[in-house]
User: Fold this.
Amino acid sequence: MYPKLIENLIEKLTKLPGIGRRSAERIVYWMLAQDAQDVKALAESIQQLKEGLRFCKQCNHLSEQELCLVCSDSNRDRKIICIVESPKDLLAIERTGSYRGLYYVLLGNISPADGRGPDDLNLPKLISRIQDEGIAEAVIATDPDAEGEMTALYLGKELKKLGVRVSRIGLGIPVGSAVEYVDISTLTMSINSRRLVDF
Assistant:
């Protein structure tokens, strides 16, 4: 039987992904063994994370400023935009080093079972960005699962109306997997072998 302070923290930690009760207990004991200043700094970092981050006003990626590091990088190819479901997908593609264009983060996908439709994707922002910035190619990099494919199909049809070249990430990503979990070499091959799609 733990004191209430320990039990409360264990309960909170088990809400984290991949953390069960045993892992939460280990984390609590680790914290108890640390210097008070180190634990305080950890708590402050978590608080600052929540308070200091926002969505980039152009692409919806996580940022500390109005524009994220990608959008504010003048060395990016500004004629190509890669459309992903989440900031984690953007970071996975960035780790490959094989893509130097811009991004648009949908912050979700089309999933009728979960009550999410096309209106939840904030497409007017994407469409106006493509038109205003003279984007020539849109690379759709949604997950190759049912929701990601449904989202890609809808996006492709809408983006074709704008007269831009629309491509889909290619070989290597197994159906049903998620972009964020694909290894770097497979994701690099997938970006480099993207194919034009006809919606």
Observations:
- The first helix runs from residue 4 to 13.
- The domain at 62-196 is CATH 3.40.1360.10 (Dna Topoisomerase Vi A Subunit; Chain: A, domain 2).
